[in-house]
Amino acid sequence: MSDWYWYVIVAALLAVAFAPSLLKGRCPGCGKRRLCSVDLDESLSSSLDEDDRKNFLSFYLCEACGRRWRRQRSQPLEDASGSKWERIFQREGL
Ligand SMILES: [Zn+2]
């Protein structure tokens, strides 16, 4: 029998599929891998400025220290503690 390599291939595919969700982003504030992405629903994303929408902003909350972050495309994380972003994180009940 030489089926073993199929198990290796399946295991590798599973690792690739699940690794990104297991590896959370690192928080620039406290250095812990505890960043949770915050989903924007339709009404929230339409309440953003047009510029922000075009920039494909994504938002993150650190579970460890509670700091708020935003990211434009693949740019580095930027602080999102300003009141402008308040409603995005408020919805998370935090
Ligand atoms: Zn943190």
For the biggest β-sheet, the strand order reads 1-2-3-4
Shape: elongated
Low-pLDDT stretches are none
**Element string (H = helix, E = strand):** HEHHEEEH
Number of helices: 4
* N- and C-termini, Cα separation: 55 Å
Helix content: 25-40%
**Amount of beta strand:** 15-25%
Kindly provide the radius of gyration, computed on alpha-carbon positions and rounded to a whole number of angstroms: 18 Å
Number of strands: 4
Q: Which ligands occur here?
A: zinc ion
- How many domains comprise the coordinates? 1
Query: Mean of residue pLDDT?
Result: 86
Report the biggest beta sheet as strand number plus sense, adding barrel if it closes. Answer: 4 strands, antiparallel
> Based on the structure, what is the oligomeric state of the protein chains?
single chain
Secondary structure category: alpha+beta
